[in-house]
Amino acid sequence: MGAGIACSVLTGATPLARDEWRLANLMTASCLTAVGEAGGPRCCKRDTYLSLIAGVEFLNCYLDAGLPMGEKPVCSFAVDNRECLERDCRFFPES
Hints:
95 residues, mainly alpha, 52% helix, elongated
């Protein structure tokens, strides 16, 4: 949801705007799709990393933002999450 809000602010979206409102909703959908495709169980850090990556890709595609992707995040929270997917998570330190 935060990514959609950020897109709204960047584009000046209002509830009555046509393209800006559309983009804000597509941004939210893009991030939620990335999280949904990763599957469960829940992991706040993984979902944050996935949303940030999806958000950068979206802004670069639709707004030609030119944001750098940077290096792949590496999770340092796996030991604190009993449900961690470990090697099945793309952000696990050893994956």
